[in-house]
Specification:
This protein is α+β, with helices and mostly antiparallel strands. It has one domain: Aminopeptidase (3-Layer(aba) Sandwich). It has a 9-stranded mixed sheet with strand order 6-1-2-3-4-5-7-9-8, sandwiched between helices. β1 and β2 form a beta hairpin. α1 runs antiparallel to α2. The longest helix is centred in the first third of the chain and has 24 residues.
Length: 205
Amino acid sequence: MSERTQVHLKDRRTGTLVEAILIDGVTEEEVQAAELTWKPFLEKEIRRMEAAGVPKERLPQHRHWDWRQKYDAIEGYAAYQMFAIECASEMQGMMLVSTAGKVCRVESQKGKSLVYVHFLAAAPWNLASIVTEPRFSLVGSILLATAIQLSIQEEFSGRIGLHSLPQADGWYANDCGMTDLGCDTTAHNLRYFEMTAEQASEFLK
């Protein structure tokens, strides 16, 4: 059964905070609804970018993600959780995490349990890399804070880890203050980031 908590996103058009709902335990119907709006919007924007001559490396690197497929893959597994943020009757972001099977690599917490963020994405209309006037901000920050809170609930002290797509490296390193452990040859050479308990505490302030 899903849990719903009120959060606030920033409407970038007005600069005001607006009410949103954080969903813990996204339903299959909600994932399908998100895909039905995200995918056509993203495909349209990619066609526009390609027509404008945008280099391939600047196209959204998560454009191949299929959230319905991800939902089907984890259904019935207790260690996996899917979160989403709903606002203005649409999904503004989604995240898939797991609470088992991964341990820390940072020397100060090496071998300790963490929450691993498999996938995190804002709706395409919220990304400045895709549209000139994004609708909402704070989506990624709220989802990452949710992963930290889950880590605290699991008694992992806020520790989280993730592999980042190159376009998001700067956000995780600079905006989120995570530790960059370099490129991981076992994970398509993506950069691996971890957040220590101290970094998590700082992020939540």
